[in-house]
Each structure stands twice: as C-alpha cells, then as structure tokens.
Amino acid sequence: MDKLRQQASATMVAGYFHLFVNRRSYTIQSNRPHPRSGKHYYYRPTNGKTGQGMSLTTDTIRRHLEGEITIGLYAINPATQRCKWVTIDADYRKRSQISSSLVPASNRMGWLRRSNKAGVEGISGSSWRSHS
Q: What pTM does this model have?
C-alpha cells in the first residue's frame, strides 16, 4: 500500500503552508480509535520532555499530505483575528442549495474571492480565500 502513496514535493508542502497555515498550533488525529467509542480523537501534540505544545513544521505537513498522519489547522490567526480560509461541511442533502447561495452572498459582502491561481502542485478542488 505504501508503494501507491504519492510523495509530497517541497513545492507542494510550501504551497500548502502558504495557502492554509495561519498559525503554528495544530492538532493531530490519534493513531488508534478509542477503545470504547471507536472514534479517532484529535489532540494537541506536546513535547514529551517539556509538555510544551509542538509547532507545526514542514515535515508535519509533508507527512499529512502523504497520508501518514491527519492534522487539523486553526483558521483564525490570533494576532489579527483574520483567517485565510473557511471550511463548510457540506455532505448533507441540501448542500448544493446552500452552497449555491452562500458563495454569491459572501462575494457581495466582500468576504471571499475565488483563488484563480494555477493551483498548488497536487492540490485540487475549489479554493476560496478571504480578502486579507
């Protein structure tokens, strides 16, 4: 299975960092499910010796892009209270109705603009970025 995994290039990692990282704090998904609930929980990784929260690195992003780990990023930059991106979980029945009205309304209010960049190597899909 590992032979099928695509390697993340330095360009891909740098592009992902530029588009999505707003601060160095992050969460990581547990490797094993909880014994009773069966769920994989997210936690804030810490240094085992100091107990301090670990900062996001390009190696962590590379491992995430290669499918080795699953991380969660914070959208809001605490220094500016702005975000580079938003995520809307639209895997429900009325998703197309809601998303077709959300984007035009957000554009009218000046909240979002479509990112028309050629794309980051290996990253596809619609990309909407804030006006910051």
A: 0.67
**In the chain, where the domains are located:** 2-130
| Cα distance between residue 130 and residue 9, in whole Å | 26
Q: How far is CA 56 from the centre of its chain?
A: 12
| Burial of 44: CB neighbours in 10 Å, binned 0-12, 13-18, 19+ | exposed
- 38-78, pLDDT tens digit by residue? 999 999 999 999 999 999 999 999 999 999 999 999 988 88
Q: What angle do CA 128, 26, 18 make, to 5 degrees?
A: 40
Distances in whole angstroms, Cα of residue 88 to Cα of each of 1, 30, 96, 99: 31, 23, 12, 9
Amino acid at residue number 55: S
CB-based contacts of 87, cutoff 8 Å, min separation 6? 75
